Amino acid sequence: MHPESAAVPAQADLLPALHRMQAQLGYIPDQAVAELARTYNVSRAEVEGVIGFYHDFRRAPPGRRRLQVCCAESCQAMGSDALAAHAQARLDIGMGETTADGGVTLEAVYCLGNCACSPAVMLDGRVHGRVDAGRLDALLAEGGEA
């Protein structure tokens, strides 16, 4: 192995670098894409492709709170579609968006592991089961997002 090659990050290190960046910043800034492409010797399109493929990567700063609505089969059968529609109407945003004041980011997820208590949501890292529109409103109000 040539000594210089040990200092050059491998393309396989791109995904862990993206995860680290998101953990530190909360999102992947536009200006980071070109730098990541240079660092890992890939095209900007390849970096964008990786970011786009993995649904957990965000391209904009997240809200102060993160609301995830489970859209897996069990939760759908118990009304998560209506719950998601209620959340979107209440917050006046679509899935994957953040409220104008930066308060809440709304996301669809596919299984929170709480199928016995469907429909489920995760708010600020805590899973809640058997959530209906009224309970969702109460959960959001607890954190000041009335």
Please state roughly what percent of the residues sit in beta strands, choosing from under 5%, 5-15%, 15-25%, 25-35%, 35-45% or over 45%: 5-15%
Number of domains: 2
Secondary structure: number of strands: 4
Largest sheet: 4 strands, mixed
Q: Taking all residues together, what is the mean pLDDT? A: 92
In CATH terms, the superfamily of the largest domain is Glutaredoxin
CATH domain topology of the largest domain:
Glutaredoxin
Fraction in helix = 40-55%
* Sheet/helix structural class: alpha+beta
N-to-C order of helices and strands: HHHEHHEEEH
Top-tier CATH class of the largest domain: Alpha Beta
Cα radius of gyration in angstroms: 19 Å
| CATH architecture descriptor of the largest domain | 3-Layer(aba) Sandwich
Enumerate how many helices there are, as a single number: 6
The separation of the N and C termini measures 60 Å
Flag low-confidence runs: none
Query: So what's the overall shape?
Result: elongated
Strand order of the largest sheet: 2-1-3-4
Question: What topology emerges from the helices and strands here?
Answer:
Elements: H1 14-25, H2 30-39, H3 44-53, E1 65-70, H4 73-77, H5 80-91, E2 104-109, E3 121-123, E4 126-128, H6 133-142
